[in-house]
């Protein structure tokens, strides 16, 4: 009986822990959706829209979401940014910020399973960047630390996702001047 109770307790704890963020496949699904579809998809998965910005001629628009955001400050378990243009000619871009090393490792492992190879790596503005490129997608991963008000620090992992062709025109592509 104790084993059954232990197993049930473990499952009840594990389910919320595994659903803390989206899988990499779900992120790619969100990236392909239009604004309304993306908002509905994320809201159904307990993400909250916290800001929106229209696109301009020289800047992508943004829909910004938070997962498990505090009611008292701007802290959250994860943040997701969907970047979109005012035209169907340009693909959406997506960025997600996570704070758990396990989620970072899950995403990197999946990128490698899908054939992603290191394209570039560099340090800029106190962050370490790794750029993985697959046959159709580029993943820019930045790792940095942030101090809170009590002088303790935490690691922040950010994943920027764009199509390979679109990546060529981003500020993350440090090789564009050499190509």
Q: Any overview of this molecule?
A:
With 179 residues, the protein is an alpha+beta fold. The protein has helices at 2-18, 24-32, 35-44, 101-113, 164-167; strands at residues 47-53, 61-67, 78-84, 93-98, 117-124, 127-133, 137-147, 153-163. The chain has an eight-stranded antiparallel sheet with strand order 1-2-3-4-8-7-6-5. The protein is globular and about 40 Å long.
Keywords:
5 helices; 36% strand; disordered N terminus; alpha+beta; globular; 179 residues
N-to-C order of helices and strands: HHHEEEEHEEEEH
Average per-residue pLDDT, rounded, comes to 86
Residue stretches low in confidence (pLDDT < 50, at least 5 long) are 1-19
Q: Classify the beta-strand content into a percent band.
A: 35-45%
Class derived from helix and strand content: alpha+beta
Number of helices: 5
Task: Assign a percent range to the helix content.
Answer: 25-40%
Arrangement of strands in the largest sheet: 1-2-3-4-8-7-6-5
Strands, count: 8
For the biggest sheet, the summary is: 8 strands, antiparallel
Q: Give the termini distance in whole angstroms.
A: 66 Å
Radius of gyration: 18 Å
The shape, in one word, is: globular
List the helices and strands and how they pair.
Blueprint: H1 2-18, H2 24-32, H3 35-44, E1 47-53, E2 61-67, E3 78-84, E4 93-98, H4 101-113, E5 117-124, E6 127-133, E7 137-147, E8 153-163, H5 164-167
Antiparallel strand pairs: 1-2, 2-3, 3-4, 4-8, 5-6, 6-7, 7-8
In brief:
The protein is an alpha+beta fold and about 180 residues long.
């Amino acid at each position: 009986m104790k084993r059954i109770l232990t197993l049930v307790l473990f499952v009840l704890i594990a389910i919320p822990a595994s659903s803390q963020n989206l899988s990499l496949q779900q992120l790619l699904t969100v990236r392909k959706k239009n604004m309304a579809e993306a908002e509905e998809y994320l809201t159904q998965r307990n993400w909250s829209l916290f800001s929106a910005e229209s696109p301009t001629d020289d800047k992508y628009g943004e829909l910004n979401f938070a997962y498990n955001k505090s009611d008292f400050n701007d802290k959250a378990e994860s943040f997701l940014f969907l970047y979109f243009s005012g035209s169907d000619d340009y693909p959406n871009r997506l960025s997600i910020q996570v704070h758990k090393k396990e989620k970072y490792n899950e995403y990197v492992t999946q990128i490698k399973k899908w054939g992603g190879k290191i394209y570039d790596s560099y340090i800029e503005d106190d962050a370490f960047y790794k750029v993985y490129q697959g046959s159709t997608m580029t993943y820019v991963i930045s790792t940095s630390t942030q101090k809170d008000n009590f002088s303790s620090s935490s690691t922040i992992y950010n994943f920027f996702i764009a199509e390979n062709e679109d990546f060529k025109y981003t500020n993350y592509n440090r090789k564009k001047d050499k190509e």
